Amino acid sequence: MSFLQGENSDIDFTFGIITSGDENAMFRVGEIINSIDRQKMPKNQIIIVGGTDLYSEQALANINTDPNFSVEYIPFDETVKKAWITKKKNLITQHAKHENIVYMHDYLYFYDNWYKNFVYFGTDWDLCMNAVVNTNGKRYRDWVTWDHPNIHPVTRQVTSNKVEWTQTEPWCPDGRIWEGGGTLMPYDYTGNHMYISGTYWVAKKHVMEAEPLNEDLCHSDAEDVEWSLRVRDKYKYVMNENSMVKLLNFKPLDATWFHFLGREKKW
């Protein structure tokens, strides 16, 4: 069941967090869990996937004292396939108890009013993006186009037939375009040609069951591009800019970006 903006019904979320199980993973995941706890949601589920020994059974028992605040840990053998994030994210879908699922890496956390603003926004969507803020206060990869016809496919520069920027972006006045990949769009842009970054997104469980991530692909194989091109014209994809998440550590837009145009596709 979906409800429209302003109807103010409670929303049950599953939060899926993928991690690598490195020495700082528990700190990062802990920051995320604390930010979810501060939402004061009536019910939620947290699924952590990654590493093999992050949480013992006793540690989970100590966390899971509130029946409406559930944390599940799925150990993952990181040696089977390097950076197999598609498998991790599909495991989140399989274990999710709720229809509304947040997919995220372990380097973001939630603003305190994230849930309150989502309740106001409503659930009339299939796929949803939130504002993703870098540590410098500018936008990271959130509302993004991949192949907009008015943006040159190689230089990523806006062509003479310019895109109409109808909204002033306080976080990104001059950084909408980054090398080798997507283009940050104004939050009121409602066209197609969109790309859903694997960093963070929200989706309905039935959508992810119908269109799982391609497990033949790993990190840096443009797995999120391949998935985006499959789903973007089939489902209702919307922007909820008032529910915001922030990076725990600064990430340049193009620092680890897959140079898609200069590399052979795997799909």
List keywords for this structure.
267 residues, alpha/beta, Spore Coat Polysaccharide Biosynthesis Protein SpsA, Chain A, 8-stranded mixed beta sheet, 3-stranded antiparallel beta sheet, 6 helices, 11 strands
Q: Using DSSP, what is the number of strands?
A: 11
CATH class call of the domain at 13-131 and 198-250: Alpha Beta
Terminal-residue CA separation: 35 Å
Cα Rg: 18 Å
In DSSP terms, counting alpha (H) and pi (I) runs of 4 or more, how many helices? 6
The coarse overall form would be globular
SSE sequence, one letter per element = EHEHEHEEHEEEEEHHE
| Mean pLDDT score | 83
Fraction of residues in helices? 10-25%
Which spans have pLDDT < 50 for at least 5 consecutive residues?
160-180, 255-263
- How much of the sequence lies in strands comes to 15-25%
Please identify the structural class as seen in this structure.
alpha/beta
Main sheet overview: 8 strands, mixed
Q: What would you say the CATH architecture of the domain at 13-131 and 198-250 is?
A: Alpha-Beta Complex
* CATH fold topology of the domain at 13-131 and 198-250: Spore Coat Polysaccharide Biosynthesis Protein SpsA, Chain A
CATH superfamily placement of the domain at 13-131 and 198-250: Spore Coat Polysaccharide Biosynthesis Protein SpsA, Chain A
